[in-house]
Amino acid sequence: MQDTTPKDIGAINFGLMEPEEYREMSATKIITADTYDDDGFPIDMGLMDPRLGVIDPGLECKTCGKHSGSCNGHFGHIELAAPVIHVGFTKLIRRLLRGTCRECSRLLLTEDERDEFHDQLDESRKLSRDLNDVTKAAIRQARKKDRCPFCGEIQYDIDHEKPTTYYEVQQVLTSEYSQRIAGAMQGDEEEGIERTTPDELAEQTEIELTRVNEILSGSFRPRESQRKAIEKALDIDLTEEDTNKLMPSDIRDWFEAIPDEDMEVLGINPERSRPEWMILTVLPVPPVTARPSITLDNGQRSEDDLTHKLVDIIRINQRFMENREAGAPQLIIEDLWELLQYHVTTFMDNEISGTPPARHRSGRPLKTLSQRLKGKEGRFRGSLSGKRVNFSARTVISPDPTLSLNEVGVPDRVAKEMTQTMNVTERNLEDARRFVSNGPEGHPGANYVRRPDGRRLKVTEKNCEQLAEKVEAGWEVNRHLIDGDIVIFNRQPSLHRMSIMAHEVVVMPYKTFRLNTVVCPPYNADFDGDEMNMHALQNEEARAEARVLMRVQEQMLSPRFGENIIGAIQDHISGMYLLTHDNPRFNETQALDLLRATRIDELPEPSGVDDEGEPFWTGHDVFSELLPDDLDLEFTGTVGDEVVVEDGQLLKGTIAEDEVGEFGGEIVDTITKVYGNTRARIFVNEVSTLAMRAIMHFGFSIGIDDETIPDEAESRIDETIADANDRVEELIEAYENNELESLPGRTIDETLEMKIMQTLSRARDNAGNIADEHFQDDNPAVVMANSGARGSMLNLTQMAGAVGQQAVRGERINRGYEDRTLSHYEPNDLSAEAHGFVENSYTSGLTPREFFFHAMGGREGLVDTAVRTSKSGYLQRRLINALSELETQYDGTVRDTSDTIVQFEFGEDGTSPVKVSSDEDNDIDVEAIASRVLDSEFDSEEDREEFLGSKPRPTNLSEHADDRLTEGTEVSSDD
Amino acid sequence: MVDVSQHELVPEHTVLEDDELEEVLTEYNIDRTDLPKIKRNDAALPDDAAVGDVIRIVRDSRTTDQSVVYRLVVE
């Protein structure tokens, strides 16, 4: 048995590894680049040495004796022939080279400066600021020093040639100094510089004339002081850069001498990390388990990219050693050294700019260490933060209005694949046996059983009958999903917590997940091909949590604004509107039909009796059947009328979007908060079914004739448009005659544009109003717009009246050709037509030019949405990463992992928007809530009075208290 | 110069006395460096606030009437 007890992590230290540590943890030194011999056995001290771990099942690890799967593998090591730089630390190496003395390796800061940075570092640490700011400032200050404050050595600039080469840059006398001096002494007539004679030069520089002549002839190299004097006198530069390459071994020696106390200021803990360890002398070889070789179908072995890279390193390492022992020239050695550096560099990171990536024989760049970790598919984001899971299913979704909003229809073939573990007891033994005997193919069947001895058996069509008889209490049965199981359901992008909710399973035929249309808004789902994911829960704790916390009905109220996010949508709203707006009458059959899918199976007293003596029920009364009996509400509704509910009876008002809709439908919201989630779920389910019955009763369809208006109206619209065109022409004329007065803060051009836009938008509105006059109130498009189900009057205006001005970037269309939008127009034509005003309606059809402008405006909309989604996705990711560790503590504060307070009270007021929602207009009605609680808590008026303290309780504690009773209801306080 | 601390939208900022500070730190069981920070040059700070002081900010709140937060003055 493996030890699987969870352990506490006390602390994690990050630091550099010492070469000696690499050797100590190494299982073997690697010296040969070969992997397997001709017989297919791994070569000792080769890259596949059996001491590095086992990958073949059945073999035993030579180091730890475990088998493949339980042996994690063991590191080996390569002794590098020469030190090489670790690419991960090039920046730090550069900083250290620049900040320390080339001679004595001490930090180029005086003791006082060093202590000051030390204090700053302590403070930053306390305030949990970025320590890099301080260490960077320290290096910057150190770099300013020309000489070491301790040993007085001159300091040179360090040049870093990426990725791993460092140079010391020295300013030395150029070899062509005599020519340069002579050239400068010639003077320049054009620039008015006079000739300088050697005499004058000698005088100015205070150098002897003979010396000057020697310098001019090139036989004497001027000393530094002389060079500076000449440079000053002639205003020239006699230096050139001399670069001196620093070999890794030089750097290692340099770093070894850095004293411990200097390193703390640089943010390095010398006990854990010595800087010279950034220069590798030993290379750890990852265990074979980290780079398994694969046997291809044809029996050939294919090695991992890391193994290939290690082969390269060992080959070069060997060549290097051979060449050095043979006494090869320095040039060859340096070349090999660089090659070794290249291979070690690309072993760790194969995507460094400036270095060609190491490639596979096929030309594919190798995937080395850094590539395994980095990025979306890397170890962190791809394998640790997120991974593929078992017991999940994904398929297309489709609607099913007969389901409850808590349910999800699961295809039978999914239900048969995903299982729930059933612990067999005496009480469920029969069920368990039935599942097993149904086998893996029959529906409520089982796929596996587990005997008490831990043995797992697959249930097959052949053995299911026999197996079923053997099942006893104590066994485990992996049975299929059945109706009522709880599963998690999700649609990406998971932008808020309602994107993942728990549903109860209803197993169904066919291949799609089915869901009630009222849960579309929280998932933002539709049925144009959307797919969703389902996860079957695998232990009781998870199932219980999902049921209590994650079920759809528990997510009814949005944590964003505290109102219901689930409610009637689209056709439900049209249906409710039709049912309640004109308060139509229904006979008994009709009324019963409307309510057939609800819990109500008996009609209330009829609302009245019609002329023929038949009883009838009104839409309001039918709807009222769904309301809780004691609901009281009064508010202004969607269509602007007063909605009044008294004792669970809708007295007046139209039921539409603001009453039962998805985002803050007043009735749904109130029921959720007052009567609870379960009642709200029932209500929403019933509203949607009643609405569907209602809309089917009335019939609801829309066609092109519903957006067509009479010829008379058509011509009136044409008139308005022509009128607007005339006014635009007037404006343009006024503009051209400079008679237009500019609006405050605008140029004349802007004023004209604004006025034209105004005129044209008014023209469209007028056209819309004319069209509106001809629409009946029972026009389906009008019903949808008025009830808030879908669309608006603007859409109707555009279909029947005029489409109106097309805009790109909020302005009339101005782009295209020089000074005009299309070649159909004169240059500088400012008219409405030439800048994208569409006079036609969608019904009458657009002209080709109008169509083109319309497409321009439409394209902008598409681009905007595309850009917005990608931008907001990235923003979301960054927000999640920034806030993921914040947690509300038991004392109500919100803190991060280092216990820094972010908010002193959750949300600054310690309230959850789901529990108390209010805004500027709607304060919380504390009185109403209090009296509701009291009403439900106390049966009699007396108990209630007593609780409130308005009437004292008779007491037998003391005779002195008796008088309280006689004094009446007044409460006297003891203090 | 406009004194922003007099503006109606700027909540009241006061420097905490030592004993008050002690109370706050024990209430939340924290060091003063665990508090949120405010820059010394923040225009809303009272003139006598120095680096290392802790400021109490009392905001009006629609939901809780008053919301009290503390901030550590930093450079």
UniProtKB/TrEMBL annotation, chain B:
Its main location: cytoplasm. It catalyses: RNA(n) + a ribonucleoside 5'-triphosphate = RNA(n+1) + diphosphate. One of its GO terms (cellular component) is cytoplasm. PROSITE patterns: RNA_POL_H_23KD. Signal peptide: none annotated. Keywords: Cytoplasm, DNA-directed RNA polymerase, Nucleotidyltransferase, Transcription, Transferase. Residues 2-73 form the RNA polymerase subunit H/Rpb5 C-terminal domain. GO terms for biological process: transcription by RNA polymerase II; transcription elongation by RNA polymerase I; tRNA transcription by RNA polymerase III. It is found in: Cytoplasm. Its EC number is 2.7.7.6. Pfam families: RNA_pol_Rpb5_C. InterPro entries: Arch_Rpo5/euc_Rpb5, RNA_pol_subH/Rpb5_C, RNA_pol_subH/Rpb5_CS, RPB5-like_sf. It is an enzyme of class 2 (transferase). One of its GO terms (molecular function) is DNA-directed RNA polymerase activity. Part of the RNA polymerase complex. Belongs to the archaeal Rpo5/eukaryotic RPB5 RNA polymerase subunit family. DNA-dependent RNA polymerase (RNAP) catalyzes the transcription of DNA into RNA using the four ribonucleoside triphosphates as substrates. This is DNA-directed RNA polymerase subunit Rpo5. It comes from Natrinema thermotolerans. The lineage of its organism: Archaea, Methanobacteriati, Methanobacteriota, Stenosarchaea group, Halobacteria.
